[in-house]
């Protein structure tokens, strides 16, 4: 059975921070097409601050739950704009059901992601089709929950693959939430930046599962 310890989650956060630096310009470019051009910058500010505090919060956190909660609090406080509270809430809620645990099963990881996605839905109140990160997360999560016939890593890969398709599916949509909403029909033909960053961040988890 696949068991994920606290170090797994620490490594994931480190790799997410690295990814954000690598993809900063790409994400910012997407956001300059239909938003205010700061999505990559916002995530970079949040993950840089998380990296500054990472060793401290890891040493202070008694379990995976509090570690992720602290990561989420930093993102929520530091990432400007709408994606900060959404991703911050994702990590806070992802840890909510694993209190007292220093390792979790793969099934528990799925539950953590489901809780995180539910937090995004509750906070942002976007639906599939509104041209947001929800268009990647929700169909992805459905695949993750349903593909019980697959082995853990294949199952997680199917999740990320579906999220990637979900991000592509935002291109022809008219934005109904967030800043892009103001563009109306002019948002058509552009990929939503948050949908793009969300599958990329989840792919970091996949890459760590493969290690
Ligand atoms: P801001 O738009 O405030 O500048 P960012 O650029 O960091 O913040 O993030 C923009 C992304 O946030 C969008 O591409 C979209 O995916 C996501 N987003 C915005 N509003 C919502 C919402 N209500 N629900 C879900 N996701 C949202
Ligand atoms: Mg923006
Ligand atoms: Mg902004």
TrEMBL record:
Can the keyword Transferase be found in this entry's annotation? yes
InterPro entries, per database record: DhaK_L_YcgS, DhaL_dom, DhaL_dom_sf, Dihydroxyacetone_Kinase
User: What Gene Ontology molecular-function terms does this entry list?
Assistant: phosphoenolpyruvate-glycerone phosphotransferase activity
Q: Does the keyword Transferase apply?
A: yes
Enzyme Commission identifier(s): 2.7.1.121
Q: Give the UniProt keywords, A-Z.
A: Kinase, Transferase
Instruction: Tell me the enzyme class.
Output: transferase
Where, by residue number, does the polypeptide cross the bilayer? none
| Entry-linked SMART domains | Dak2 (SM01120)
Domain named DhaL: residues? 7-207
What NCBIfam families does the entry give? dha_L_ycgS
Please state what the protein is called: Dihydroxyacetone kinase subunit DhaL
Q: Which organism is it from?
A: Caldifermentibacillus hisashii
Gene, per the UniProt record = dhaL
